Amino acid sequence: MILPPGRKSKHPAAGPKGGFELIFHIAVCSPDSVLRSRVERQCLDYYARRDDACIVEQLDGPEALLARDDAGERYELYLIELPSTAAAASLRAAAALAVVMIHVSAGQTTDAELVWNQLSRFAVPMFLVLTGFGHAGALTEGKFEPQGWTAVRRRLSRVLPPYFLWSAAYLVLEALCGTPHAHPLFDLLTGGAYVHLYYIFILVQFVLLADFFCIAMQRYPRRLMLCAAAATFGMQMLIACQANGMLMFHAPLSLVRLFFGWTLFYTGGIWLRLHEKWQRCPLCVSVPVWLLSALGVLLTNHMFPSLSASSLRPDLLVYVFATWLMLWTLCSRCRTLPAPVRFIARHSFGLYLAHPMVLRLWNVWTTHHDPVIYLRLPQMYLLGFGGGLAAAVLLSFLPFGTLLGGAHRKKRSRTGDL
């Protein structure tokens, strides 16, 4: 018997003794009506065998459960389908793989290398979408309260120590290679120590502003999204005009390192966390949308080559969210991802920090080697990815490896006979 959401059902038959010992009120919460009905039948059968009865109420989402709670409904048992973490992990792994491709293919001249470089440009924006998606967790439960400096300190403690240590290491490496920074302290503080560390500087800005954005999304969602779009597109226009020589001005800090141009990605992640209907998008829709957006990225690169090195472009904005939609709908079909994907996702932060060091050391070594060794794109990618991942795994085994961006080691519990 399949009941619509919100209806209650009680087992019609009593136990062998002719009556019920206990009656349990159970809430089954899942967007899948078939799953709800199967769980309901299992509950009814189980409690019938125990000479008990149960009243099962089917709810189609957390919002309905919270509404029942506000109305005074109470249950002895909550059966809630947790959202799959496979999709989020796959997005993190894909972004980590893509950022390696960006750095490996930078400065390449062949058409294939340019295509790979442009199709990987979703990496840094995707990381920021994931950041907003994660920061909005309390909003989905309807219990959001400003967390203040406690949450800020907790989040920054995971990011700032690796950032400063790796920035110092890159500054020292550049000095040893004969290309010292003119303003090392300024670059250390503003994400300019090496080419990829600007993302951490932007991430810190969003961590500091997380409560502001979450409160604004809770109270004024439309206004926030409009302001975020205006800030993002306005900054993209300034960067494009500057790159094409239409505006000539000197800024002490690169416009790319300011959070304004990335606001729509972060707030978009918050919006995606609060709305679940997009998760039901079929692959027959998400894949064509992704293909069209990818074609737009390649056409923009062909028409405006001066913008090819920028990740702040309107076409990339569409491409980032289209990539998110396609990967989510593809990976949410499975509850668990393949072990290699989970492994890459777990070590993605260490991989992000370490792989440019591997590429830089290789470049220094090979240029002083006679004859000079040239690697093709696949070989360079394997070098950067393999070396960066090996460094990230090594960091996770060090006693204080988390201070350098290494993943926390999994604790294995020992179980014995009770």
Number of strands: 4
Helix content: 55-70%
Strand content of the residues, in percent?
Answer: 5-15%
- Major beta sheet summary: 4 strands, mixed
The assigned structural class equals: mainly alpha
Number of helices: 17
General form: globular
List keywords for this structure.
single chain, 418 residues, mainly alpha, four-stranded mixed β-sheet, 17 helices, 5% strand, disordered N terminus, disordered C terminus
Provide a short characterization of the protein structure.
The chain has 418 residues and is mainly α. It is 60% helix and 5% strand.
Structural notes for this entry:
It is a single chain. This protein is globular. It has 418 residues and is mainly alpha-helical. The longest helix has 29 residues, at 148-176. It starts with 7 loop residues before the first strand and ends in a 21-residue tail after the last helix. It contains 17 helices and 4 strands. It has a 4-stranded mixed sheet. The protein has helices at residues 33-49, 62-70, 86-105, 111-119, 123-135, 137-140, 148-176, 184-190, 198-208, 210-219, 221-243, 263-274, 283-303, 314-331, 339-346, 348-367, 377-397; strands spanning 8-10, 23-29, 53-59, 77-80.
List the helices and strands and how they pair.
Blueprint lengths: L7 E3 L12 E7 L3 H17 L3 E7 L2 H9 L6 E4 L5 H20 L5 H9 L3 H13 L1 H4 L7 H29 L7 H7 L7 H11 L1 H10 L1 H23 L19 H12 L8 H21 L10 H18 L7 H8 L1 H20 L9 H21 L21
Parallel strand pairs: 2-3, 2-4
Antiparallel strand pairs: 1-3
Helix pairs in contact: 3-4, 3-5, 3-14, 3-15, 3-16, 3-17, 5-12, 7-9, 10-11, 11-12, 13-14, 16-17
